[in-house]
Amino acid sequence: MSESEIQTYRPRVATAEPRRNSVGVQIGKVTVGGGAPVVVQSMTNTDTEDAAGTAKQIAELARAGSEMVRITVNTPAAAAAVPRIRERLDMMGVDVPIVGDFHYNGHQLLEAEPACAEALGKYRINPGNVGFGKKKDSHFAAIIEAAIRYGKPVRIGANWGSLDQTMVARLMDENGSRSDPWDAGAVAREALIRSALESAAKAEEIGLARDRIILSCKVSGVQELIAVYRDIAGRCDYALHLGLTEAGMGSKGITASSAALGVLLQEGIGDTIRISLTPEPGQPRTGEVQVAQELLQTMGLRAFTPLVTACPGCGRTTSEFFQELAKTVQGHVRAKMPEWRVKYDGVENMTLAVMGCIVNGPGESKHANIGISLPGNGEAPAAPVFIDGEKKMTLRGDNIANEFVQILENYVETRYTSRGA
């Protein structure tokens, strides 16, 4: 390959495996499965009885990019608050579907509060605690019948921490009779999967359509989650919700969730995701939405906001200026994206590069829509700017950050079609 060919070479983009062929489920204006883009969802941590506070947090999550928001519905007062929450959201122009999370008493709450049953966009039930003993089947049936009556889809969400113990005991007995018994982990995974699949089959027997059912089988271990979802994906065509339950706080939760979900999404498994982060004290709940979006976008599955490539820095870049510029650009993009998303078509696909020295700076800048290569130690005090692969100008002096942001603004205005045009 000649030098000129090397300079113009663009590597072939690798892509994820084709999406698993799942049944599509309609939830308001949102489609989960059926070939639709992977949907981002989140959950509030407010007291649902506080209608104003819960509506406020739902709106914040929706504006951050959550396409469904789940709320706890655990008491009669919480159920009674749901239609008021829906009314407040409608008044704010926030049409995100609300998912009601029911445990233990969902059958009673839906029966007692029909306005709640109507206002919710979807119900989530846990087959491990929907009912116990002889009452389990009747409680489960009552919720499914409510979903049918009000035209709502249902997520049947089995969880490692609340497995149906009757199911576990039955599988342990089966395992004991095997000539080559499974280990305890394999039995637990099978119990989780069967709990979801058998519950889905019962829901269909009661009359809930297949395209109204979503399944999830959540665990808190990365390898266990991958194993469970690979297995259930091969045994059904229901839409699947992915999430590492109780992922944790900060970098641990982000790393664990990304490791598990990244593998599954790469294999085409998963129709909707949640990153179950424990928020840092004083930090907004919206952080989990941002992580979910960044995971999907960095994998090339969806685009939500322009991505900024920035070098980590080394001995050539002892100045912190490139770090400050990268932070400024990233902050500007996030602040402007709500406006840009409404005004311009395709702006979420824009790529930016802020580089710190001559080694990789020009090359990375050429690969981005807009890139800047700042001078490293001992380099000439000049910062070439590249637009769509071509060097267009060189910035110098103390106003580089403001000038670069203005270049970015001008590019957006001229490059992307106005949605009103």
Automatic annotation (TrEMBL):
One of its GO terms (biological process) is isopentenyl diphosphate biosynthetic process, methylerythritol 4-phosphate pathway. It catalyses: (2E)-4-hydroxy-3-methylbut-2-enyl diphosphate + oxidized [flavodoxin] + H2O + 2 H(+) = 2-C-methyl-D-erythritol 2,4-cyclic diphosphate + reduced [flavodoxin]. Residues 308-409 form the IspG C-terminal domain. Gene3D superfamilies: Dihydropteroate synthase-like, Sulfite Reductase Hemoprotein, domain 1. Its cofactor is [4Fe-4S] cluster. [4Fe-4S] cluster binds at C311, C314, C357, E364. Keywords: 4Fe-4S, Iron, Iron-sulfur, Isoprene biosynthesis, Metal-binding, Oxidoreductase. Binds 1 [4Fe-4S] cluster. The keyword Iron-sulfur applies. Its EC number is 1.17.7.3. One of its GO terms (molecular function) is 4 iron, 4 sulfur cluster binding. Residues 25-292 form the IspG TIM-barrel domain. The keyword Manganese does not apply. Pathway: Isoprenoid biosynthesis; isopentenyl diphosphate biosynthesis via DXP pathway; isopentenyl diphosphate from 1-deoxy-D-xylulose 5-phosphate: step 5/6. Belongs to the IspG family. PANTHER family: 4-HYDROXY-3-METHYLBUT-2-EN-1-YL DIPHOSPHATE SYNTHASE, 4-HYDROXY-3-METHYLBUT-2-EN-1-YL DIPHOSPHATE SYNTHASE (FERREDOXIN), CHLOROPLASTIC. Converts 2C-methyl-D-erythritol 2,4-cyclodiphosphate (ME-2,4cPP) into 1-hydroxy-2-methyl-2-(E)-butenyl 4-diphosphate. HAMAP family: IspG. This is 4-hydroxy-3-methylbut-2-en-1-yl diphosphate synthase (flavodoxin).
